[in-house]
Amino acid sequence: MGEELKGHLLGTPSVVTRPRTAKFAWLGVAVAVMAAAPALAQQERQLLPLLPGPLPTDYGLLLELPEAEFPGRFWFGAGVDFGHDNNVFRGAPTLGNSNSTWLTRLYGQVNMALPVGRQRFLAQLSVSDYKFSDLSYLNYTAPEFRGAWLWQAGNDWQGEVTYNHLQSIASFLDTPPYFKNVQTLDYATANAEYALTPRWRIGGGVIGYQASNSSDVSSAANVRQLTGELGVRYLATDQNYVRLFGAFSNGDYYDRTPSPSFDDQYDQYDVGVEVLYGVTDISFLRGRVGYTNRQYPNVSSRDFSGPTGRLDFIWGISPKTSIDFSVRREIGVFETALSNYYVTTAVGVAPHWEISPLLRFEAAYEHWWREYLGDPVVGGVAISGLPQRDDQLNFVRAAFIWTPTRNWLLRLGAQWSDRNSNYNEFNFGNDTVVFGTVQFGF
Length: 442
Prior knowledge:
Largest sheet: 18 strands, antiparallel, barrel
Order of helices and strands: EEEEEEEEEEEEEEEEEEEEEEEE
CATH topology: Porin
Distance between the termini: 34 Å
CATH architecture: Beta Barrel
Strand content: over 45%
Shape: globular
């Protein structure tokens, strides 16, 4: 899947590419969800903070506590993210509200990694309290849970069972700031893979999710989806494989009344291929090319389809220095009177430098080309008849991360972004976010 999918909001973008099985990456106390499917999805490596900024929240990124030094199975962490955003609403009209604010996030986490024989159980329970200094109506508290059972049966069967409950305020990149909308996502996955031979694997899985919105204005976008997926994988070596997959999804907007313009259900088909190739011990090429087809049974004018894909080259210059290059094409739902979906094409580069064992520098640049397509048709006539929206966006981010001891992490950074659109009301420039983190784990 692609970048962020925060539910199918009317007028709010949401990425629709093929479903993926949730993966858990533990960094000592960390459980970082590299999630799944049409649903609040993260990229394999999220380079930029979720818009509207100002905090680059990396859930699960606490401190690495090596088992040799900390033999317990439970870890605890607490911290504060803080930041200042000078353009929270990305140029949208604010109806008298301030367009800049200080934001803080106070959070606590309990993490578990429990091996039982060949099984492994992972869990994270966290509570985050978000405060906007000049926009108090946006304040909210988000309790969240992530859990996984990584199972193995004999030498030939393995898989995962996961459940996640996540919450986040809706992005203001395309949503007017007239109301607060906290989006809640619950999703569960179950998958299995069988080793036909030492090199060939066959497997499948089921993914179910529900995304809901706290605002009544967006309740028509509340959605449920069930996905089934099958795939076959060939492993040349431990770090080289090719995987073919196919998936079918059925979804419904359970709080929406169908109309000639908006359907309340859909089917989606996805096929594609994934590749991982180890160029060297520290350099990797990974890619995914697929095709997505979404069909609405009652409002076929909102159907869309097209190719999607992502290619990443992680160039390990040395064990302490690397540069990540990426290019991707994604299709996202964007239901308005002017469009059905958008297509995002993006390129990015992200250098990483471990200056010392205690100090790390990270930076990223991404450029997006985003086209809003699919002018809805009713009775054979386009609803709007207006030129369709076309945007270009830039994001630049840099940060230093300092871990003076195994228990403490401190981060300081900044992000700059802008957007140029053929619809002038969507333009914004020189959005600057300064952010920091103080974090303790034990």
